[in-house]
């Protein structure tokens, strides 16, 4: 089911949930693209002192995050799966780097707190949105 069809057929609250996801991934796209403009193709290793594998992953989010936006708009279920895959990899990686390389307590990294909360929100709402975009509607 396309996002515009989902909006027409469901309550405003459910549409607002999807809009929040689209805006979050659009914001993340902006952040990663800005990082690349300021720091080059793979800026994270030199900025944060992390291994190249994390640099590659975070740079790949410059492509994956807008993919989630487009997928959410074109097909809600596919978009949700893309969004879940991104968040289920990104948050654990960020937690690992935060504790292993930076040694920061969670409260000193507000962006990680927000990312974790967003990921939890995504997981909590998946059943509802999945049902509303359900069989025969895609």
Which blocks of ≥5 consecutive residues have pLDDT under 50? none
Give me the number of helical elements. Answer: 6
Integer tally of domains: 1
How far do the termini sit from each other? Answer: 4 Å
Beta-strand percent range = under 5%
Helical content class: over 70%
Number of strands: 0
Shape from CA axes?
A: elongated
Structural class: mainly alpha
Element pattern in H and E? HHHHHH
Main sheet, how many strands, which sense, barrel?
none
Overall average pLDDT = 89
Radius of gyration: 16 Å
Describe this protein's structure.
- The protein is mainly alpha-helical and 138 residues long.
- It has one domain.
- The protein is 82% helix and 0% strand.
- The chain is built from six helices and no strands.
- Helix 2 packs across helix 6 (110-132) and helix 4 runs antiparallel to helix 5 (76-102).
- The chain is elongated.
- It starts with a helix and ends in a 6-residue tail after the last helix.
- The model has no long low-confidence stretch (mean pLDDT 89).
